[in-house]
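FORM 7B: Structural annotation worksheet

SECTION A. Query
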Amino acid sequence: NLSKNRNITDSGFQYLSGVHTLILILNRNITDIGLSYISGIHTLILICNELITNDGLKNISGVQILNLYYNNNITDEGLQYVTGIRALHLGTNTNITYYGLRHLRGIHTLELDSNVNVDDRGLFYLTGIHTLSLPCNDSITNVGVQYITGVHTLNLSSNSRLTNLCLPALSTAH
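SECTION B. Predicted structure
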């Protein structure tokens, strides 16, 4: 865990090749360049790292678990670089919309909490996902819930627009 270490910069990442898990929370001097040194890492947690962009996601091939919570420089376009990933956390990313979710078909686990631009249209792409967490997404309605069939584990907590009418669609959840 190298969180909140403001003196760690991109150049130091060359020594982290082969690390299994790397946690970087609030590291304000890490950029896309630093990510180019750590391809093949299994678990990468990049929470609140303001200088990470879509270009940085091109450099993280082989990552299985990725947490990009509150990284607003990641957009729909960047999601094309995380295909094949097993678990992805994209909570509170205001530049992720329904349209970007098309890149995430086949993902095992997806957390999209508090993403104001994710709505019913994006749920269409998430059919058959194993674990889906969508709390605090008030753009999701009963209509969108109909798309998420075959989900094993589903979290729809704190979605104010959901009513009893969505419950029949959830009968396919395990």
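SECTION C. Observations
The chain is about 10% helix and 15% strand. Strands lie at 21-25, 43-47, 65-67, 87-89, 109-111, 131-133, 153-155.

SECTION D. Sign-off
Analyst initials: ____
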